[in-house]
Amino acid sequence: MDPACFHICGDSPAKVKDAKQKLLDLINDEQYSHTISDSSILSFSPADRQQIAAIQKKLGVSIKTDNKNGEASIIIEGLNKDVLKAHTEIDRMLKKVKDEQGMKQKLELTSNLVEWQYQPQGLQFHSFDLLTNYQLEQAMENNQPNIKVMIRGQAYTVTLPKGPATDGKGNTLQIRRLDKLKGWNTRVHRSPESVQGHMQSNHYQD
Hints:
Elements: H1 13-30, E1 31-37, H2 46-59, E2 62-68, E3 71-79, H3 80-113, E4 114-119, E5 126-127, H4 130-141, E6 146-151, E7 154-159, E8 165-167, E9 172-179, H5 180-189, H6 192-202, E10 204-205
């Protein structure tokens, strides 16, 4: 906000003082400070911080980030209406960060439990990326008959639960799903010889 200069004139010093006080009261009434406390602030990316700087410039408010004892907060100061707008935009940013963190946890958890793979013609099986792995598992849990995914930049329709994956030209890829939890349980309860044979024959659902 650009600074403003006021010149107050009156019949007496007392009236000037009274007018000055009323003006200060009006200014103070319009000033507002709001604090947002959220641990997700620590997860803001450089792009997020640049966006906050842009909000500060656009709305003419003061935005300060504080981090004491691992507790992060953002302090917004300015005119009531501008502070409210800044708070709304930053709150939206925090929601996006939380959604991304939640999705990342889901992807990692799913990858720790199951691993979906595809086999290009004449090659070994390859693991899907974490997001596609999660989408395939969710589709199977929801009893979807098929799901569209991207494999090496090409769109494929995967028939669940055992494949194949078929592209728009009718080319197919084999699909398989490794249940890591069952594999771990097998290694605990079986001898090394029987585990090896079991892994070769039963770990993958063809």
